[in-house]
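Q: I have 476 residues here and want to know how they pack in 3D. Can you give me a structure?
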Amino acid sequence: MKSSSSLPGATDTFLAAISHSQCAAWLVPTPPDPRCEAIVVIPVRDEAAHLPATLRALAHQRDCDGRPLDHRRYEIIVLANNCRDDSAGVVRQVACMYPALPLHVAEMTLHAPHAHVGRARRLLMDEACARLRAVGRPHGVICSTDGDTRVAPTWIAETLRAVRQGADAVGGRIVTDRHARAAFPPHLRMHYLRDIGYQYLATELEARIAPDPADPWPRHYQHTGASFAVTAAMYRRVGGLPDVPVQEDIALHRALVRADARFRHDPAVRVVTSARRFGRAAGGMATQLDIWAQEGAHAVRYVTAPTAIAQRARHYHQLRGVWRAYRSGYAPTQDEIAALARTLGADCGWLWRVVRRGEPLGMLHEQIIAHQRERGTFPTGQIEITAAICDLRRRLTALRRADVLIPFPQVEPVMVGALPDAMLQTGSFALSKEFVDRITAERPIRQERRPVDEEQMPAAREVRQHPRPRPYEIVQ
């Protein structure tokens, strides 16, 4: 372990500060730099093969303008728990390569029933929370990633920017490693891409029916430990990371939603993770990939029907309107509550009582869902995934025409064949209908200056990332 501070008496001051903290920091005895704005935590178990790439990506972080990010603005804490390899030794080797980088490693053996990633990540996040508070940064950011994940060059900077813009927590876009994904059996790749397409379309439908000011479109749908960030203040407010053996990241997201945290699914915050089928923790991406691999090419998968997705989004939108009015001092009339109760399929008297409690919207919404399930009025329905994707596209086509929102500006179709440099430089795309109809992906287009993300569109499309939306003008 090493410290980024050389101030006289800094360690004594730090230890005195954390002794009064609700989080007992003890993994790293040396204090953080007073300029530290973010602490990256990484729980690892037998990740010696992936850690060098993970840590190099963190060592070469840049700000949003592309300049090297000052190492004094962040630090990294790795917890090597229950390792049978030399993961801790790899961290120490990388630390020697970057002497200016505050990189710490702690080793620990967790015993049953606490030998799981949930406990390891909680120890790290508690530690980071205490360290940020000890240097007077209650709104500093705790950033979580995994030992088999490589963060984007601006991962920390974009996370900090999202927090400066008002977010209490940030979920990053998680992309699987391209080379590992290319080795998928065809049926596994098919299941994987269908799931990606369905999730994105469902997320857009929700965003257009019930837009969230704190998480506007464009956004994604992921909030897992490979890229999850939360301010120290909000982390303390929700009581820390739930101590559960699996899906601790999902449990933390639910706790944040119940507390009405402003959660941002920011497409600019990105990581690349491994596409292995046998992971270190149950219930993660590796588990899902293994399930799809075993299902075979002809397996039929059912998902939530778009009708149910749309109905749930409308229910939430109407509930939020009544809740906001009540919190602003405008008590809803009996007729308004009765109309909302009919829409939700809830008991009118019960609904009025729970609204008047003044609880956070997330907690109120959770109670209403439980009430709907008891009464059998919660919108449900399953449909085969390919039919669901077709239905979602049809619904979104109509909504996009009627709405001012732009369909996911991070990506745009690319025609097979090079575009003129003038188009790329000016951003002016005057496309004929014939040109648009020829957009395809019969062979891939790879341009280093325009990196391709295959996961954001169906397999029959090729996409290219842009820093901001580029308008299309269809010339008939």
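Q: Anything worth noting?
A: The first strand starts at residue 38 and ends at 44. The radius of gyration is 24 Å.
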